Amino acid sequence: MSMNAVGRPTRPDDIAETSAEFKSLTGGKGLLQYERLIFEKKDYTRTGVDFADIDITPSDLGDLVRGDDLGLPGLTEPEAMRHYVRLSQKNHAIDLALYPLGSCTMKHNPRLNEKMARLEGIGDIHPLQPTSTVQGALELMDTLAHWLKTLTGMPAVALSPKAGAHGELCGLLSIKAAHEAKGQGHRRTVLVPSSAHGTNPATAAFVGYSVREIAQTSDGRVDLADLKSKITDDVAAIMLTNPNTCGLFERDIVDIAKLIHDAGAYFYCDGANFNAIVGRVRPGDLGVDAMHINLHKTFSTPHGGGGPGAGPVVLSEALAAYAPTPWVVNSGNGYVLEEFGEEASAANFGRMCAFHGQMGMYVRALTYMLSHGSDGLRQVAEDAVLNANYIKASLQDIMSVPFPDGPCMHEALFDDKWLEGTQVTTLDFAKAMIDEGFHPMTMYFPLVVHGAMLIEPTETESKAELDRFIDTLRALAASALATKNNTDDVARFKNAPHLAPTRRLDETKAARQPKLTYG
Amino acid sequence: MRFTKDHEWVLVEGDTALVGISAYAADALGDVVFVELPEVGKTVNQGDSFAVVESVKAASDVYAPISGEVIAANDELSSSPEVINAAPEGTGWLAKIKLSDATQVEALMDRDAYEAFLSTL
Amino acid sequence: MRYLPLNEADRAQMLATIGAKSVDDLFVDVPASARLTAPVDLPRYAGEMEVEAQIKAMAAKNLSPSRVPFFVGAGAYRHHVPSTVDHIIQRSEFLTSYTPYQPEIAQGTLQVLFEFQTQVARLTGMPVANASLYDGSTAAAEGVLMAQRITKRNKAVMSGGLHPHYTHTVETLAHAVGMETEALTPAVDAEAEVLKHIDKDTACVVVQTPNVFGTATDLTQIAEAAQAAGALLIVVVTEVMSLGLLKSPGEMGADIVAVEGQSIGVPLSFGGPYVGLFAAKEKYLRQMPGRLCGETVDADGERGFVLTLSTREQHIRRDKATSNICTNSGLCALAFSIHMSLLGQEGLKRVAKINYAKAHALKDQLASIAGIDALTPRFFNEFTIKLPKVAAEIVEVLAAKGILGGVPFTRLHKDAAFDNHLIIAVTETVSDTDMSAFVAALKEVL
């Protein structure tokens, strides 16, 4: 034989064992690279953008000209790619695994949406071009408006609000304007159920309304008797989420709407959970007067690590005239942008933002709607609800459910009763999910349920992924329950996450000595 | 030291009183990270919100346990809010109030009554 | 259906696990009167090719700025964005992640936000900045409400140089919370007038530089006057690229700064989504709206980042929150930050100078045309001219010739006194040929 090569170990057991506590010498974790701040590279001379040299004296600006050192480091393109790709790998993402944040609706973001938003003639057009040169853009907005109105059964929509909370503000300002126009400006109270999103009371207080809380029944719905007792002649509106934040449909919704209308008030519906009913229920048929729609939830525009969102508000006949400018009007002879509050829009309450709203999100949402169609959107709601009920049914023998009777809608709510006697809290349990490769569910919300765990799978999860998730939660739950009798598994929870890019962070330190910028 | 059901305490010294939050409240809030102190010179009525104590995940209004004029605020808490956790019923006091109605103090719970009240929560 | 992984067999199995006969059983809580039994009256399911064709048909009806000489600005600007930016923001880990509420698995987003806040602080010359707001106009409005919280005063004075959309947005929000506003008459050089309107009830003055007409102004004197009267100066910047050449708001004494960040990294996209940059003096930190990212350490003592001071926010304070804002503009902030780090201060200063030089070259050419008055005394990349004819009509005629020739001021604010005013923006994307074509066309139509 010819011995022209040298062998090397080719099986793991040929290699010496390493301890579980293994740490690299320089702080890296294999593919998960340590990455400095751009400011720590301390290079202020480089740039990753090539422009011709230019030597000018801005003579007319005098001492308005800025000094040379701005403290802004530059990166060449390869350095920038490395920096941001390394950082990206420290994030969880929908594209990686089920992301069960209840009430946040982390569904798949179709890439066709992204492609359409970047088309020439869409992504590059200016909001103040002559309207004769953007007829297609106005048509797109009008088409989106038509879909939103048809799906909700409402006659009007204000497109411009830039996110859900901005939409809430828009809805309440429409209500306020309507009351003032009717000489009902003394109405200053908003009824809000105790389970509401924090934005609801925040928005009500913001516009100068006082908040009156409505109690919840033992089956997780608005307490009708309590509601009746709290409707007085100073009530301006009720703000209700439906399906509510416990993931339940408000069975008495039509009666609630009637009570509110009979009292001369309006019904604001928080549409955060519209994805549960799209195509199966029209809020207009429930007596809703105003509802914001989070395009980033129901209509799949990406969450982008915290925005941008979009929060168009559909309005009833009673409120339509008060919608903020601008309005897109199909004049029959082309689309017109009504920006000055003339004629039909004379009663508008004002303007939510510069320009016309989140066009980039409109394109994505409309692309999604056209893809699904009316039949597909109905299927979206059905699959979202089916997936949530499947999770509930598959876990309720081991984890406790506060409202066990009847189906849930798009999200399954658990509490921490089942953890009594263990050494594990909701927070520990959620953090342990990270080590198993899943993002934690929404925790401690809604506030009305102790140690709440709110799981929203969305319709874009396959049964296989749901089963993988259920198996993981069952295994973790069994481990948590085992801490009742021994302490073997406690560290799994108390020190979790063990395998994430960072360990638990000291939020107290961050808040006591805020350090918000480098240097 | 006297207590309210909202977990404030009062310690009378002559015609003034120190006020703060109870050890129970400080423990329930968790690590205090910020305190919004009342303005000196301000007149407060019993039950008014006159300060805010914040932990990382909670912000709680503190209600005046008695009526009167704020004559001093515990400025140390601005830079060292952790003092509230370390000594809520001592150096973690919030404000000194000049009493306008001494009889209000009598109506508050003494320590035994407060302890009994806590055991019902 | 390509976005729905369940098939009929899956659904049947799952219903069996749940113990439901059909999916209708899961909707039993919906009142019978409100149950739709069939899909609503809209088109049915469509494949990628069909959808793409429909959207493209709409896009084709628009005149793309990429195709024609383009001079439109007034609060949104066309700039070159490096290809890297759009590539990175489409990475799954950035595009499809949520607000970083679980910091252990969101350090990517959080470190970016920390770097973004530092970039914004340095660019504006301010000590602290937040993790972004919706856009420049809502940032300005939030600044006004913040000034009310700080000063406990109730009136905002807005300069006549403030973008009219911003004025209107601020009025809407300020009136909603019961504040008074005083919007001064628009003028090319409106800033000095502000001094006369500061009094003991003034919470803040809102001044824009360069203003909506393009005029750049030193606001130091206004800052001093406002602060002497116990009011705050809010500086608005709608063209963030100008900060590569012009003195920063911080250097001029601003208390609060609200900036539209679109010019760096964010496409025009017909007006949104954009990104609001918001910065302030350190002493006002706790009154700031929006999310803040802060540095801390993890259980091993390693540096990490978290959202912090969140007790100011709606999900904790509920009806006592500093604002009702829930979302920031995360992905646009990321785009801004990437583009900013690619530019660095060297690139930023250079592109700013190019903008300045091109705009001044065009102004000189236009000013030499008989009948045109160049009105803006000191400017960066945008200026206003007065035409001998109605600007809105001229702009339409130019558009028909394939030139997008600026924004008539009356598009923003209806007032016959401004019928002939045209605001013209010139960025690095404008070529000499574009400028010649614009000048020639304008000569022809006047």
From TrEMBL, chain B:
<comment type="function">
    <text>The glycine cleavage system catalyzes the degradation of glycine. The H protein shuttles the methylamine group of glycine from the P protein to the T protein.</text>
</comment>
<dbReference type="InterPro" id="IPR003016">
    <property type="entry name" value="2-oxoA_DH_lipoyl-BS"/>
</dbReference>
<dbReference type="InterPro" id="IPR000089">
    <property type="entry name" value="Biotin_lipoyl"/>
</dbReference>
<dbReference type="GO" id="GO:0019464">
    <property type="term" value="P:glycine decarboxylation via glycine cleavage system"/>
</dbReference>
<dbReference type="GO" id="GO:0005737">
    <property type="term" value="C:cytoplasm"/>
</dbReference>
<keyword id="KW-0450">Lipoyl</keyword>
<dbReference type="Pfam" id="PF01597">
    <property type="entry name" value="GCV_H"/>
</dbReference>
<dbReference type="InterPro" id="IPR017453">
    <property type="entry name" value="GCV_H_sub"/>
</dbReference>
<dbReference type="InterPro" id="IPR033753">
    <property type="entry name" value="GCV_H/Fam206"/>
</dbReference>
<dbReference type="InterPro" id="IPR002930">
    <property type="entry name" value="GCV_H"/>
</dbReference>
<dbReference type="InterPro" id="IPR011053">
    <property type="entry name" value="Single_hybrid_motif"/>
</dbReference>
<protein>
    <recommendedName>
        <fullName>Glycine cleavage system H protein</fullName>
    </recommendedName>
</protein>
<feature type="domain" description="Lipoyl-binding">
    <location>
        <begin position="16"/>
        <end position="98"/>
    </location>
</feature>
<comment type="subunit">
    <text>The glycine cleavage system is composed of four proteins: P, T, L and H.</text>
</comment>
<comment type="similarity">
    <text>Belongs to the GcvH family.</text>
</comment>
<feature type="modified residue" description="N6-lipoyllysine">
    <location>
        <position position="57"/>
    </location>
</feature>
<dbReference type="GO" id="GO:0009249">
    <property type="term" value="P:protein lipoylation"/>
</dbReference>
<dbReference type="GO" id="GO:0005960">
    <property type="term" value="C:glycine cleavage complex"/>
</dbReference>
